[in-house]
Fold:
Amino acid sequence: MFGARFRAAARRGAQQSNAYIANEVVSRRITIANGKQEARAALVRLREKQLVQAKKELKAESKSTQRTVRTKQIAASSPTDPVYLLQKLKEAHDLGFLNDAEYEAKKRELLTRI
Structure:
């Protein structure tokens, strides 16, 4: 019914339309791929930040634990512990705060506690 020229023009129009659609599909696929890549990069950055924060928290907890251990060690060698008091007595004697007689008297007193 229609002539050859019309059919050829319709084919060219369909080809151009198909080419345009194909280009649009490619463009959108590229946009989606770029979005996925950006999302992955953002996720990696987020995980890195979380890791840094977790490391800081672990380090702080470790320091806190170390302080607790030191406190317990100090408490174990408290002023009521005779061995600790003997050490301090010796330091006082070595520094000249106690003479020999005072040192020996206090030493004997502490040794009776043990």
User: Anything to note?
Assistant: The first helix runs from residue 4 to 76. The helical segments are 4-76, 82-94, 100-113. The chain has a mean pLDDT of 86. The chain has two domains: 1-70, 77-114.
